[in-house]
Each structure stands twice: as structure tokens, then as C-alpha cells.
Amino acid sequence: MNKRLLTILLLAFVIAGACAFLVYRVVGSRLGAARPATTPVVAAVADIKLGTVLTAANLTTVAIEGALPKGAILKPETAIGRGVISDLYQGEPILESRLAAVGSGGGLAATIPQGMRAIAVKVDEVVGVAGFVTPGLHVDVLVSGNPPQGAISAQAYQQGTLVKTILQNIMVLSAGVNIQKDAEGKPQPVQVVNLLVTPEQAETLSLASQSSNGVKIQLVLRNPLDTKTEPVPGTALGNMFADHNPAPVKTQAVAKTVKKAAPQPFSIEVINGSKRTEEKFGTPEAKQ
Fold first, then answer.
1. How many other C-beta atoms lie within 10 A of the C-beta of residue 221?
2. What is the pLDDT of residues 158-180, one digit of tens each?
3. Topology annotation, domain 38-109
4. In 10 A of CB 236, how many CB atoms?
């Protein structure tokens, strides 16, 4: 091969390689500048159930690009020993709002906010809305029974069993003995439901559950988006069987003016000796 041609080819390969290297450096620097920085945060290594106290075995780290979620935990030591107040899922970053306060432990008590109380309400399978009362849902609480004499009017007392809504929009903390769903994630029929209430509401529920007048408690499910509460009038058993047809309208008697018929004219013959006269009555001539 011609020495000159070989030199040209070698020079061309060197120039092409230098150009490729320069393009690679320019594109790589631009991609590196466009890529956001990542930050390692603490995450769940597997699904973690409500009430679990976190240990090092429950935690891992994941890298998050860009802005961090509010309350993200950066060090495992910050989360170890704290209770979980809502279910966590594998790979999910752990936030401060999902954990109980430091030192409060785990279990149901860790899920109770300050100023609130948890009260257990005993229900049966039907009253428990067939097992569909699960943690996080909101319910209304109804009581039914015969109120003691003197608590209501005598007329209302005669109407029989009464039903009244005593609490509205109450959050369910747990259902059943343990505060988890079954292995398939389905609701379980339960006999005890723990409700999140204020101290005043706890007194009302406690009084209703311990009444000796056959009072029963029933839970009514609400739409989670429906948070409106309104006064609900109680219902009596007697009202269900009462005749709700409208009462007949009483017509008011209207006084009618009766015109008296004009008296018929008549005449009387008067005999005075041999003289006879005729007197007429009820005629204009008689009035005159």
C-alpha cells in the first residue's frame, strides 16, 4: 500500500476518534447536569401492619430524586422503636405522620391522638354491618330500646321501642381482637369495635352499652366523603304502624239566612146583629 495513503487513513482515524471523544464528553456533561440529585430516605423493607413497633429489620433505604416528601425520615435511628399508626407497604418511604410519637410505643394506644379516647363497643355479626366495619371507616352510632319512665312524655312512652342516633361521623380505630384484616385483606366478622371519640362521647357510649333496659347499639356506615352532621329525630316503633293518612279536613258551617215566607192574607166575617162586616188581614188594605 502506498505510504502516503496509509498516513492519510491513519490521520483520519485519529481525527474521527478525537471527535467522537469530544461528542461523548459534551453529551455526558449535559445529561449529568440535567439529572436531578438523589437523596437516600428510610423506607419499609416489607409490608408493615398498623401497631407494629419498628426495628432495624423492618427498614431499608431508597433513593428519591428531586424534592423530598414532607416529613421524610433520613436516618433509621429516627424510626426505630416507634409505632406505626397506619399500614405501610414495601418500598414506601416512611414519613413522620405515619409514626407515633417517640416513647408512645406501639399497638392501638399509639394511634390515639391527643385529647381523644378509644372505647370498645360490643356488637354482633349483624350489628357490625356484616363484618365490613374496618379501621379507618366512619360510622354513626344508633341505640334502640325502651327508655325509663319519666325520661320522655307519657304519650311517647306508649309508642314502644325507640331508636335514636347518639353519635355521628365517628372513626373506627380497630375491629375485632386484633387490629388487622385477614390474610386475603378481607374484612372479618367482629364482636368488638374500637371507636375514636371525645371524653364526652365516651361517657355517652359507656352509659348506652351498660344500660339494663335492653338497649342495643348499632353501627351505620357512612361515605368517607360525607362528614356533615345534622340533628336526627328519634323514631318510635308505634310510629311505624300508625296511620299516616291525612286527617279529614273539617268544613266550617256557613250560616245561611232563611227568608220567612210572607203570611197568606185571610179574612174574618163579623156578624153584629143584622149587620155583617168582613175584616181582612195580611193585605195592604188591612195595614192601612
1. 14
2. 666 788 888 999 998 877 644 45
3. Type Iii Antifreeze Protein Isoform Hplc 12 (3.90.1210)
4. 19
